[in-house]
Amino acid sequence: MSFPTTPVFVYQGSKPGFTPELTQHPAAAWLKTYTETALDGRAWEKGTPYSEWHTDDYSIEKSDGTVVQGGKEAWEQGAPSLFKPFKAHKHEPNMAVILEIPNGWMMLGQANVYGELHAPSSEPKVKDGSGKEWDVMTPGAFRFTFAKDDKAEHDGIKMQSTSVFIDTAPTMAMMLKAGMLKPEDLTKA
Length: 189
Fold this sequence. Notes:
Elements: E1 8-12, H1 20-23, H2 26-39, E2 54-61, E3 67-69, H3 71-83, E4 86-101, E5 104-117, E6 126-127, E7 133-134, E8 136-148, E9 157-166, H4 169-177
Parallel strand pairs: 2-9
Antiparallel strand pairs: 1-4, 2-3, 4-5, 5-8, 6-7, 8-9
C-alpha cells in the first residue's frame, strides 16, 4: 500500500536548548528569538503589541483545552495565564519535527520548561542545561503554526497558532508546598 509523504526537518538534540543544529531551520531560528524575547522575556508585561509576533487570527490552545482566539486576545490572555505562577521561566527544546505547509511551517516539538515561583521554595532546585537553578521543571510538548509574512517585523514570519500539551501537576505541587495555593484552591473553577 502506498501513500503520499511529506519531507520533514527532524531535530533530536544531543544537548538541550536552541542549538545551531536546531536553528539552521528558519522556523526554529525565529522560534528561538520569539521564545527568548517574547515568552521568556515576558514581552506582554512590557506593552509589546500582539502584532509584532502574531497574526491577527492567532490562537492558543492551553493544556486544559481552553482555546483563546484572535491575535490580541490570545496574546493578552493566553501567554500571561500560562506563565502566571512564575516570576521567571525558560524553555529548553530537545526535539522538533518541522514540515512545510502552504504559506509557512508546522512544528511539533518538545521542551523542558523551567520556572522560578513567585513565592520562595525550600524544595531542592533543578538545573537547566546551562547549570542555572530553578524551582520546577516540567516537560512539555507543543504544536506551532508559523505563517510567512513579508511585512513581519521578525524575519518575515509570524506565529499563527500554538497548542500546549504540558502536565501542570509538578508546578501545582510546588505551588502548594510554597504556600502559593491551598488544597481547596484545586477544586475551584
